[in-house]
DNA sequence: TACTACGTTTAGTAATTACTAAACACACAT
DNA sequence: ATGTGTGTTTAGTAATTACTAAACGTAGTA
């Protein structure tokens, strides 16, 4: 049994849609990225409409999110009003970019609230077992987040997060 | 201005709810964990109802998910029919546990679909530029997933992922 | 100036997900 | 057996999120 390339591509993008959903992104996002990732040339908005079955509007907003994360790049050809989009082929670069994005978003705000809790505890201190317990716990969470934060910052700083570094890390974890 | 401990706890759990949502989990899940995390004694289902404002049903199902991820532990007292729940205080242990959980779920299925694409391409091979291009791209994604997979497997295997290992990793990434 | 070809925004709808309330099942005590 | 106190399941509802269709804005063209 022989499958056409379009069929194979379709299956692939469906898979990416599921992966996208799994990580908490809209499934359309995965589909859009999939289409671009398998295209050897940059695609226009209309071509993506054609390939995914989504509408211009949806693609317009989601592709902007993808661009912000550094997963796709927008370009334009001279003498052509259309924008063209292509996928970032280097996933390690993409990861760094996503982490960078996440740092200045909701997450930071939420993490800050842990810090706030800690301060509230300090400012209203009452010496008893429960306060000690709660303080200790919140402090532990704070430490954990700090470690996570240094880790992501380090990864973001890295120009060369790639297979080599990953294998280095693996050797430590051995 | 002085805040009561209950107020502080409430703010804290709200923060955790947001963090929970950010990572794609129901916000109630974060709230439940937060309440347990700040309690020095294991709590019964009804006590969690009281503290979170959710219903028994919701908590019953979500706490099962939390337990599966290793974020809370269930216990029971002799001569007491109630179950009691407490939070896992070691976040590194929790991470390992979550990763382990994720391995056997949706994600694996999705990742497998990339492998399937690769095989479909090999079985229907036509030598031309586009097939070469597509094959190369899918292969690159596969490699990336493989690296990710080894990484999580390594972390899961580790009994001692903790601050020390994390700082070791940080030193590599320097 | 008006027309055209595009991307964006908006207002509404469909689909999904989180939750509630209440029925249920089970274990234990009487 | 019957009743009582548990956690669980289920069926329905509320809230959220993803998407559509169509109006809009804008830059280039005649």
Give a written overview of the molecule.
- 2 copies of one chain form a homodimer.
- Chain A is mainly alpha-helical and 174 residues long.
- In chain A, 70% of the residues lie in helices and 7% in strands.
- Chain A is built from 8 helices and 3 strands; from the N terminus they run H-H-E-H-H-E-E-H-H-H-H.
- In chain A, a hairpin with a 6-residue loop joins strand 2 and strand 3 (83-87).
- The radius of gyration of chain A is 22 Å and the shape is elongated.
- The model of chain A has no long low-confidence stretch (mean pLDDT 87).
- Chains A and B meet through helix 1, helix 6, helix 7 and helix 8 of A and helix 1, helix 6, helix 7 and helix 8 of B.
- Chain A binds a DNA duplex (30 and 30 nucleotides) through helix 4.
Task: Produce a short descriptive summary.
Two copies of one chain form a homodimer. Chain A is mainly alpha-helical and 174 residues long.
Q: What does the secondary structure layout of this molecule look like, with pairings?
A:
Two copies of one chain form a homodimer.
Chain A: H1 5-22, H2 27-37, E1 43-44, H3 45-52, H4 56-68, E2 72-76, E3 83-87, H5 91-103, H6 106-123, H7 129-157, H8 163-173
Antiparallel strand pairs in A: 1-3, 2-3
The structure holds a DNA duplex (30 and 30 nucleotides).
